[in-house]
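tool_call: predict_structure(chain=1)
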Amino acid sequence: MAITDWPATERPREKLLAQGVHALSDAELLAIFLRVGIAGKTAVDLARDLLQRFNSLNGIFSASLPQMQQVLGMGVSKYCQLQVVLEMSKRALGETLQQTDSYRSPAQVKSYLQLQLAHLQREVFGIMFLDAQHRLIAYEILFEGSLMQTSVYPREVIKRGLAHNAAAVILSHNHPGGIAEPSRADHALTQSLKEALQLVDIKVLDHIIVARQDTYSFSEKGQC
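tool_result:
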């Protein structure tokens, strides 16, 4: 049965207009983005297939073009549109943080870092550089690879902090496919960077670890 044959209250677009976007499931949101399905499947069916194949919205956003093309009905155009949606979301939230005290907006900071990191399949270390009012100046990924194998050099962190004239930073890295709990190495790294940045009057406000579906804030745990 085509979506147009469904009761109006069950159609994703009509449901959005009547109840708001937050009332929609992941599959319904994705169906509106897809607009049309394929022979024998509605857009909602196709959306559910994608979520089942890639496990989550983050999984869909992190899928490569060849992986996406393995799904009937998904090609270059849809892949490009997904990447554009992700990038626009990052930029829109980044614009908000440029005008907001990040220290007083932990939920927005977490959302921003999830958009930046949750979909990545490799481990990276990034920093939010903030001004004296804790507004976002820039976000940069400085190091890539497992933090157990790739050194995070305090000298490079200090160099970028001074280049941005930052007064504070929020450290971040991801645990691809894992849980957001910090390791001993994560704790040691946080402490070493705090001590190094203190020498140039740059304060570490937080270190946030991002996993696929969760985040861990050192500050919220009283560890930063």
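agent: The domain at 8-88 is CATH 1.10.150 (DNA polymerase; domain 1). Proceeding to next step.
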